[in-house]
Amino acid sequence: DQQVKQNSPSLSVQEGRISILNCDYTNSMFDYFLWYKKYPAEGPTFLISISSIKDKNEDGRFTVFLNKSAKHLSLHIVPSQPGDSAVYFCGVNSGYALNFGKGTSLLVTP
Amino acid sequence: DTAVSQTPKYLVTQMGNDKSIKCEQNLGHDTMYWYKQDSKKFLKIMFSYNNKELIINETVPNRFSPKSPDKAHLNLHINSLELGDSAVYFCASSLTMGGGQGKQYFGPGTRLTVT
């Protein structure tokens, strides 16, 4: 069973605009929710995480929002840059490993 | 210096063969993992190792056998390869089990193709 769902397989955004990637999860017991970024032919790299006791975490152009009542996680990228074009995986830390969604492919066009 | 390295990067082999994928991390981490990304792009945990001990085996067929000779290495041996084993395999490591805030370091992946 999938604990993390990313329902949008792809997203296209113009450079300079905001990119919003969404994620839903099923289990409220996780301590940390996270986003990883993956370029083709490379391994995923950690982008940002948020503790279950917070509702927002910012790191530069990247902000993650956590809505616990809706079991929803989102990543905002402002402003979007062409170098942000990648696959973004939403995930949860089960305490033993990471459980990921299927990923959303973001394309930022000039 | 590469933090998490895997060899080989590409592996093409025939059904029924046995193959190994090697992983090394130079980060001094205690925990290492193997993940599989299948053709549908799902990235799923296969094994978690902490201090050379197996912690998690996520319903992986016993044809897959991880081996950790020391904390810096976690190799994956696959017996009797099947077509469905074709995937990209990622090794990862973290300072603590699960990665604390979820921060793990991934290798570049090994693309296995079984013909």
Description:
The complex is a heterodimer of chains A (110) and B (115). Chain A is mostly beta strands. Chain A has strands at 4-5, 10-14, 19-25, 32-38, 45-51, 56-59, 62-67, 72-77, 86-93, 98-100, 104-109. Chain A has a single domain, classed as Immunoglobulin-like (Sandwich). Chain A is globular, with a radius of gyration of 13 Å. In chain B, the strands form two sheets. In chain B, strands 2, 4, 5, 6, 9, 10 and 11 form a seven-stranded mixed beta sheet that branches. In chain B, strands 1-3-8-7 form a four-stranded antiparallel beta sheet, with no helix packed on it. The N and C termini of chain B lie far apart (34 Å). Chain B has 115 residues and is mainly beta. Chain B has a single domain (4-100, 107-114), classed as Immunoglobulin-like (Sandwich), CATH 2.60.40.10. The interface between A and B is medium-sized, with 25 and 28 residues.
